[in-house]
Design a protein that fits this description.
By secondary structure, the protein is an alpha/beta fold. Helices cover 37% and strands 11% of the residues. It has a 9-stranded mixed sheet with strand order 1-2-9-8-7-6-3-4-5, sandwiched between helices. α3 packs across α10.
Length: 476
Amino acid sequence: MLVPTAPLIHKCGSTNFLFRPTPAHCLSDVEMWRLKYQPRLPKSLKGEVAWHAGASSQCRQRRDIPVIQDRFPNTYGLPLVELSQGSTAVEEKQLRVGIVFCGRQTPGAHNVICGLHKAVTGLNGAVLGFVGGTKGLLAGQVADIAPHLSTYLNTGGMDLLGRTVDKLDPSDTPKVLEVAHQFNLSALVLVGSSRTQSNAARLAEALHAVPGAPVIIGVPTGIDGALHGGGVEASIGFDSACHMYSQLVGNTSTDAASAIQLSQIETERLLADLVETELKQRKQAGLSSAKFNPVCSFMGYQARGAMPSNFDCDLAYTLGFTAAHLAAHKLNGYLAVATGLKAPTEEWAVGGLPLPSLLVLEEDRHSSPQIPSSRIDLGGKLHRALRSGTEKWALKEQYENPGPLQFAGPTCDARPAVLTIKDDPGYLQRMGRVQQQLAEVREACKPGCPAPLLEIAAQSLATLSDVFGMYHGQMK
């Protein structure tokens, strides 16, 4: 069904971006039904929310500390922040938050806006959507998104605001500041994966000491789960994409042993080859000079616009709420995170992870620090579990079809295996326990403590120090 044409946003500079929200009458029955799902929030985000500063942070690799500390003098070492029920004075009294879709399309991105809007308006603030991604941000293309959110809750893709390129150069900083002043923004939320959040880290550093500049908050998304580890347990959209891939693979599993035949050739690739052959013949005959560069579909296209799982709906809505409270407390240079994700949503811990803590230097040591895309840990528990089945899979046919993504029923709230297979209570939770244990050791080893106790502590800490040394040696 065609969407009725809506007017262009006002022209700013030389760029136009379409803003054509999907009206309710264009939604399918399933989409209308999904609008009724109310994303769940952790109990720490219900009611009044307080923030607590934890220990100061550091970057991932010790060898990078001098360089990153030098390049990020304002934001390096920021404390880990945790949000909880309580009351803390809100720093920003007139909260105006801009949001930009920077990374590629991902299921659940619209719920980030919905959660952000719900929390910001609850703080008597306003949310502005930049249409057209980073190019739209630099062009100052804003839209009033509030009237349209009711038809975008729990939907896939990023079509409400759209996106262009996931890159902001350092040279763009003055223009970002100009646009922020133009719309009186107190915060800017950048939604995307590792490249987007690397840009966010640099932007936050550049604007940190500028009077009247907005705080920069990141929200992690990505169907490939590239932004993972170091306190980021899951990126929005990864769970939905895995379900989509599993369904597509499961649908074809029974054909795995069939003989090669024409029916197994991808239709679009066959058509592309035929069209290319025809155009070559026409060109040789002088009948055409048309260029043909076909792009065939791949599984990523299927996943990016997929309807999000309940898990991704909850995670995106939660991180939108989290970003709002980080912005309200003027916490610049943070990535909104939720941890303990294998537990029920109500039990998640949420907070802000300092963006510089995720940065690493490339091997040449001269390039700008980046947040790297995570790699599969071939020695990790998840990969070991996968490898444990290879021998029997080689001898027996054990195909199974997991079926489509479930929105109701006994498996609708299933967690990704990357979360459930690990014996980990959550990054924020574990960090809190370690800090408490360190405080207990410090308290027990004050001057005047028994000599045997001091000796035990010294030997234990020496062993721990050796283990740290071996770990950091492997990271080089």
